[in-house]
Amino acid sequence: NAGVTQTPKFQVLKTGQSMTLQCAQDMNHEYMSWYRQDPGMGLRLIHYSVGAGITDQGEVPNGYNVSRSTTEDFPLRLLSAAPSQTSVYFCASSRGTNEKLFFGSGTQLSVL
Amino acid sequence: GDSVTQMEGPVTLSEEAFLTINCTYTATGYPSLFWYVQYPGEGLQLLLKATKADDKGSNKGFEATYRKETTSFHLEKGSVQVSDSAVYFCALRGANFGNEKLTFGTGTRLTIIP
User: I want to staple A66 with a disulfide (CB 3.0 to 4.6 A). Which of A47, B44, B65, B67 is the partner?
Assistant: First the structure.
């Protein structure tokens, strides 16, 4: 079972570059979300989606865009990367907002 | 708003020692409480949960009891193993409709030495 698949695993960007972190799940989950993990701060919610065509902001949405055109995919876009966006990013999904979350293995992003 | 406070790490224990990782929370109503574990190089996995006061969640020898009176959900294990080395996150999900998002603590890194 693939579960939640994130790509790439590692990425280095220069300030001002743009890129998309990919997230796909094969469990037919309605709820998908993106978190960033920073030392001493735990996980913070960036954006989430409760179904195809529906997205909403989390705790730290600035500098990130998302879209949900299909149930399976939930890409996270960095429009103009900044050093403050250096972090580990996790995608997660669940059947519903009150259900168990399944996490991907993460993307380690460095912005120079 | 909702918040979760975990004990500072890192925590280093010898194999077969008793483990406690403290977690307290602030939230309105009766949130659901969770412990997630992150093994090296992997994403988080749900370890255990409790959805109402006095519930005890348990899994893989770990236990945590939902204490409403002390707003706590401390994680315990009677005899830890090297394979328990990981980062442990306490989390809560708000009780109010429209506030179902998870709020995580900062994580506690646990290292077990043989």
Answer: A47
Chain A nearest-CA distance from B114, in A, is 27
**Using the beta-carbon criterion (under 8 Å), do B106 and A97 form an inter-chain contact?**
no
Q: Which residues of B touch A90 (CB under 8 A)?
A: 43-44
Residue-wise pLDDT tens digits, B24-71: 999 888 899 999 999 988 889 999 999 999 999 999 999 999 999 999
Instruction: Tell me the per-residue pLDDT of A77-90, one tens digit each, with 9 for 90 and over.
Output: 999 999 999 999 99
* B82 backbone dihedrals φ, ψ, rounded to 5°: -55, -35
Minimal Cβ distance to A105: which of B42, B104, B107: B42
* pLDDT bucket at B8, cuts 50 / 70 / 90: confident
Q: Which residue in this structure is represented by tokens 């570059």?
A: A17
**Integer CA distances (angstroms), B16 to B19, B23, B76, B83, in order:** 9, 22, 13, 11
Sign of the torsion angle spanned by Cα atoms A40, A46, A49, A50: positive
